[in-house]
Design goal:
Length: about 230
């Protein structure tokens, strides 16, 4: 029989959650997103992107890790093709994420298209209600706050980057690593979940020294197969 999974917060979310609930829940994470956006704006400005290009890129792309990867590749003298390939590899994880939330994005095709742009790792995790179900209101509320935070952070970094200095000095380079660990803690609640998390980390660490950017992340997702049981 298929595996049975119950979200630890399921008893608390039986009532339908709303857009406001999502915006409120993602508030603490939005602080890290602003910091990460500042880091991206500073980096993009440092490698010669100017001030406008990073802002436009964040407003139209909204893909933090992929944006960092592409800018880093170009800054190191890489080709546009290499930069695009790195971004595509990092964003490949959104294929299964998009499939999981597709039934909850209703309306016309353009409405679904716009709402899909708000589906990122954090909004997806916060909107999960267990048993493969997601709250559309929470997903959109969290996504809007994260989007505005990302664009605002990029704007600050791009416009005031030279005055901010090295983002690592303020620990901004570690902001998202801490953020994802925070998302992981409430999910890893039993031995099977902990085993999947550890296996995923091991796969990523083993591949990082020689695999192309994004490859370790995609390969590490294979650890979720531990969640299957007959």
């Amino acid at each position: 029989m298929p595996g049975h999974c119950t979200h630890p917060l399921l008893p608390l979310v039986m009532a339908e959650r709303t857009f406001r609930d999502g915006a409120r829940a993602v508030g603490p994470l939005a602080v890290a997103v602003v910091g990460f956006g500042i880091s991206f704006g500073v980096l993009a400005r440092a490698v010669g992107f100017g001030w406008l290009a990073p802002i436009v890129m964040s407003a139209t792309t909204f893909a933090g890790s992929a944006q960092f990867a592409s800018v880093s590749v170009l800054g190191d003298g890489g080709t546009v093709a290499a930069a695009v390939a790195a971004a595509l590899l990092l964003n490949a994880r959104y294929a299964p994420i998009g499939i999981s939330v597709a039934p909850y994005l209703t309306g016309s095709w353009w409405s679904r298209f716009v709402h899909a742009q708000l589906v990122v790792d954090e909004s997806w995790a916060i909107a999960a209600e267990g048993e493969g179900r997601f709250s559309r209101g929470v997903l959109l509320g969290a996504g809007v706050v994260l989007y505005l935070s990302w664009v605002a952070g990029t704007t600050v970094g791009a416009l005031a980057g030279q005055g901010i200095g090295d983002p690592a000095t303020f620990g901004l380079d570690a902001a998202f690593a801490a953020l994802f660990l925070g998302l992981l803690v409430p999910i890893a609640r039993d031995r099977r979940h902990v085993a999947a998390a550890l296996l995923g980390a091991t796969i990523a660490l083993a591949l990082t020294p020689f695999a192309p950017a994004g490859g370790p992340i995609i390969a590490a997702s294979a650890a979720c197969l531990l969640g299957l049981r007959r």
